[in-house]
Amino acid sequence: MAVLRVKFTKTKRDKLAQVLWILNWISVVTGAILFSLGLFLKVELHKQGEVMAERDIQYVPNTLIAVGLIACAINFLGGKICYDCVDTTKFLRWKLIMLPYIICTFFFTFCVLVGALMCYCMHWELEESLNLGLTEAMRFYKDTDTPGRCFLKRTMDMLQMQFQCCGNNGYKDWFQIQWISNRYLDMSQKEVADRIRSNVDGKYLLDGVPFSCCNINSPRPCIQQQITNNSAHFNYEHQTEELNLWMKGCRQALLEYYIHIMQSIGLTVLITWLFELSVLTGVRYLQTSLENVLRQGDPNSESDGWLLENSFMETARMNLNIIKSLGKGNQIDTATNGDPNINVPSTSKAHYGPDNVPPKQITEDS
Amino acid sequence: MLLKITFTQQRRVRLAQGLWLMSWLAVMSGAFIFCLGVYLKTELLRRAEVMDNTEIHVVPNILMMVGLVSIGTNWVATRVCQDSLDASRFPRWKLLLMAWFAVAMLLCCLLLAVVVLSYALQGRLEESLKVGLRNGIRFYKDTDVPGRCFQKETIDRLQMEFRCCGNNNFKDWFEVQWVSNRYLDFTSKDVKDRIRSNVDGRFLLDGVPFSCCNPASPRPCLQYHLTDNRAHYSYDYQAEELNLYSRGCRQALTDYYMEMMNSTGPGVLSVILIQMSVLVSLRYLQTAVEGATALEDPEGESVGYLLEKGVKETFEDVKANVLDILKFAQVDPSAAEGSPGAEDAEKPADNTTEKAASPTPSPAS
Asked: Which one of A216, A237, A243 makes the best mutation probe of the B interface by having the most chain B beta carbons within 10 Å?
């Protein structure tokens, strides 16, 4: 009992082959789209790479790139096969390759699905990476004279301006680190010396933020220094002031940005997966119907196409037996000690009669 | 005949096919010109708030119009090519082709004018930006005045995006009160001193808004007391280059727009080239096919040319034709029933005198 049997006339087979040829070429294009989406994600992650700590997040775009390339190759081959399938003589060329091709493509679609799921699951690792990376970047904000860290100030400033965010979780993160280098602090001043002495680690902490935290939508000129001191500024209430600085934390802003990208990419990959699956189903039908035609002998006759020859359970059992016997092929038969010349009596219960039957005398007709 | 070429039947067919392809190429280049115009216009509109007038918009407007007309014109050329090898269908295009040539020449001239204008209008653009930016800086503080409340955001965004400060440079901010009175404590001595020292009673200070800060500076941004070396540690006002953006926004914006228009120059010139070649090829095709249909053997050789007579003679002919048409509108007082009454709307008095005179054949017929 075949799974999902469909009858195919000659014209239907030819039409199926042509349609599949076109669909395979469309799949090549979608494979190229997957490749470019992977490349795009890689570039986007690289752009903010300086505020991400070392975490293994590059595997997602790498998978997408690999899957895209393999999809192009597989569907290119599929297109060639389907193009030749219109003619039954040319089909003989591909007859032996088609079944392994279909099996490979079936497993490949699993890879595509895994790629799509990875896009949705990546954001936990990304959040960790951003958390650590941003903390480091803020710590080294002042080290513009240390080689290897001298660009962190610029990176952090551009990031805060571009993504409209301030600090890691909020602007108060800047109160806890020294972001003004000692090179620009007048140690002889009383105020500076007081601040440094009042801190355990000898850090110059202040309730101020860098200029890149300033909100451009604020109606008043930006208040960067003495943020928590209401009396330092005219008509200023620290608790209710919302428009002065960016309220969002940069980790949150970057995460939202990347989640948005990855959700769009994940959706595209899912749609591609469905498309590939449907093309694969068509190719399977084409293969089985052409094989049946060859078995029947008449290339113009009707034939059946199916997904699986027997039911699902039987096919699974048959395949398991094949795999088991493949494993047994290397084992030695211990009953004969490996010698194939010893006659092992059959253990079957069927009786085909006694062994010593004299040959029948043929009476000659005279 | 000007620049004549002999065409066999096969050459005519080749010319028609090649011209059909080139006409579709010209259609696409027309679409390209249109998109270019749209892009330029959107870019100019984005910064419309810091521009005083819209004179510079003539460049993208012409580009858009030329693009649209060019698409239609070259599509007509493809239809003409398709009909050119069919002797029965080609004659109906005869009259239209004269108009087509005129329109195509006009398009080429307009495109050339666009290239010239984009250089010539640079001065006007600078003027417009100068006035617009000056107003923007003046109204920076008026975030509570309707109609001006977005100036602060506009100027801040502009300065951050184009990495510039002020109109000519950052010192423009020293001459303007950019801190609103709402946020000034008038009981403070410093504020009162500053206001009293100024003739107009404005609160001027040697500070700039935060959007002038340069992120590439190694030290945290210094916005206030810029001219006072003692106000900041290890700070020299004259030598400090990285603290703020040194470029003025007028210069930055002018450079940006000039670069955009210059980069479109080669594209526009190549479109002019394509259009001219379509025009020349279509003229050859028209004359060759017309020559062939006039022959006894339509499949034989014919001569294609650009102009039937020399340049001067053609010019004289055209002038005579145009004058004739102009004369056609005027009533010839000696001719009784020369022109039909419809053309005489301007001179009804002459009409009556003409009717009164005795009928004589008009010299024009």
From this structure: A216
**Is residue A98's pLDDT more than 50?**
yes
Nearest residue to A111 (alpha-carbon basis) of A42, A76, A64, A75: A64
Answer yes or no: is pLDDT of B363 > 80: no
Residue-wise pLDDT for B285-304, tens only, equals: 888 888 888 887 777 888 88
Strand, coil or helix: what is A240? coil
How distant is the Cα of A203 from the closest Cα of chain B, in angstroms? 16
The arithmetic mean of pLDDT across residues B149-158, rounded, is: 93
Among residues A85, A3, A26, the alpha carbon closest in space to that of A283 is found at A85
- The span from the CA of A309 to the CA of A327, in Å, is 24
* Inter-residue contact A285 to A278 (CB < 8 Å): no
B122 and B264 housed in the same domain? yes
Q: Do B220 and A184 touch (CB under 8 A)?
A: yes
- Cβ A221–B211 below 8 Å, yes or no? no
Could you give the number of structural domains in chain A? 2
If asked whether residues A210 and A273 sit together in one domain, one would say no
For A181, the domain range is 137-251
pLDDT tens track for B28-66: 999 999 999 999 999 999 999 999 988 899 999 999 999
Q: Do A302 and A236 fall within a single domain?
A: no
C-alpha distances (whole Å) from A176 to each of A49, A135, A196 are 24, 11, 13
pTM of the model: 0.78
Which residue of B lies nearest to A159 if distances are taken between CA atoms?
B215
